[in-house]
Amino acid sequence: MISGRAAGIAPSATLVLNAKVKELRKKGADIVDFGIGEPDFDTPENIKNAAIRAIKDGFTKYTAAAGVDELREAIAEKLEAENGLDYAKQQVVVSNGAKHSITNVLFAILNKGDEAVIPSPYWTSYPEMVKLADGVPVFAGTDNFQLDARQIESAVTKKTKAIIINSPNNPTGAVFSGNALKRVAEIAADNGIYVISDEIYEKFVYGEKHMSIASFSGLKDLAVVINGFSKTYAMTGWRMGYAAGPKDVMAAVSSIQSQMTSSPNSIAQMAALEALKGGKESVKEMVNEFGERRKYAVKRLEEMDGITATEPKGAFYAFPAIDSFGMSSAEFSSYLLEKASVAVVPGKDFGSDKHVRISYAVSMKNLEEGMDRIERAVKEFG
Ligand code: PLP
Q1: Which of 49, 108, 165, 373 has the most Cβ atoms closer than 10 angstroms to its Cβ?
Q2: How far apart are the CA of 11 and the centre of ligand 1, in A?
C-alpha cells in the first residue's frame, strides 16, 4: 500500500489536462490549448548553443550539489542588479526547476504540522508541495486578486512557519502592490515567519513594476526568493530554477538536494549561465508580444456575455469569472473542451470554483481561434 503522504497528494491539474489534450489530439481532435503555462516561443539560439558547447566540451558530469560557482555568482549578481537584493553566492542554490526549488525550501523549513499561509487564488502546486513536506496549507483571501495584508494577518497562527507570495500571480495575473507587500513583510518580520517569494513571472509585467518582498527591511533572515529560467527564457523543458535566502536555510536546501538529485543538470546550468550573461532582446520581444495578446484576450473575454474578466497586469494568464453560467469550474471546462475543443483549467485547482484559467502564451492565430470558439460555445449555452 502506498504511503499516507503519497495518497494525500493530487497530481498537477495542469499536467493532467495537458495529458488529456495530447490524448485527444492523438485521436485527431483539433484542440486549442489554453491550458498549459509555458511560452510558445523557442529557447533563444545563444542559449541552445551554450548547451551544445557544454556537451561537446564534456561538461557532462555531476556538479557541486548547489550548482556551479559561476552560475550561483551570476544569479547573485542578477538579484543585486535587478531586484536590489544582497546575497552571496553561497546563499544561492540552483535546482531542477523552480518547482524543485520551492519543494526543497519547504522541506528545509517545515516540521510536521507547521502551517504555510497561501493567498488564494494560488498556483495549484503550492498546497500539494506543503503537504509533501508534512506541512498544512492555510488559505488567506485576496481583495479582487490583490494581496490583502489583513487577511494574511488573520490566517497567521502560532503554527505559521511560512507565507508563500507569488507576484506576478499565477493564475490571476495580479501584480501585488508595494504597500501590501510591505505590510506582509512587517507581519512576517514581527512574527518570525519565513516568506517564500515566487518571482518566476517577474519579467511579465505590463505597465506595472515588479517588486520583490525580500527587498523590504526585516526579512534578511526570513525571505527566500524563488526564480527560474522556464518562463523568462522559454526554457520549461530544461528544468532550471533557483532559490536565494538565509545561509542556514540554503545550506539545508543544498544538503537535501545532494541526497535527492546529487546536483542540477550540468548542461542546463551552462545554458542558464548564458541566459543570464547573454543578450536580452529575446525576452523583450516575447514580453512585448505577450502584452499584445493580453490586450486582445481581455478585450474578447469582456465582450462575451456572462463572462467577467479582471484585467491581468502580469504573468500570461487571464482568470475570468464564469459562475453566471451555473456550472462549476470543472463543468465549464469540460463543456468548453467537448463543445468548443478549447482546453482551459478549472479555477477550483487554483482555489476558486468561480473562475477558469486561460493561458494566452499561445500564438495570436490560436488565441483568435480559441476566443471565437469560446464565444460561440458561450452563446449557445445562453
Ligand atoms: N511557480 C509558478 C507560479 C509557476 O506557475 C510555475 C510553473 O508553472 C513554476 C513556479 C515552476 O517553474 P519551473 O518550470 O521552473 O519548475
Answers
A1: 165
A2: 15
Q: How far is CA 111 from CA 7, 18, 114, in A?
A: 19, 33, 6
Determine the distance separating the centroid of ligand 1 and the alpha carbon of 39, expressed in angstroms. Answer: 12
Task: State how far Cα 16 lies from the chain centre.
Answer: 17
Nearest CA to ligand 1 atom 8: 37
Q: Please enumerate in sequence order all residues whose Cβ is within 8 A of that of 259, keeping only pairs 6 or more positions apart, or say none.
A: none
37 lines ligand 1 (CB under 6 A): yes
Q: What is the pLDDT of residue 382?
A: 65
Can you say whether residue 244 is alpha, beta or left, with left for phi > 0 and alpha for psi between -120 and 50 degrees? beta
- The verdict on the CB of residue 97 being under 6 Å from ligand 1 is yes
For residue 146, the cross-strand partners are 143
Ligand 1 center to residue 329 CA distance, Å?
Answer: 22
pLDDT of 14: 76
Whether the CB-CB separation of 135 and 113 falls below 8 Å is answered with yes
- Residue 297: count other Cβ atoms within 10 Å of its Cβ: 26
Q: Which contiguous run of DSSP H or E holds residue 196?
A: strand 194-198
Q: For ligand 1, what atom is nearest to the CA of residue 37?
A: 8
Residue ranges in the chain whose pLDDT is less than 50: none
3-state secondary structure 202-262: CCCECCCCCCCHHHCCCCCCCEEEEEECCCCCCCHHHCCEEEECCHHHHHHHHHHHHHHCC
- Cβ pair 161, 109 in contact under 8 A: yes
- Indicate if ligand 1 lies below 6 Å from the C-beta of 228: yes
The predicted pLDDT at position 183 comes to 98
- Check residue 90 and give its pLDDT: 97
Our answer on whether the CB atom of 39 is closer than 6 Å to any ligand 1 atom is: no
pLDDT at position 21, please? 87
* Residue 160: φ, ψ to 5°: -70, 125
Residue 264 Cβ contacting ligand 1 at under 6 Å: no
pLDDT score at 381 = 81
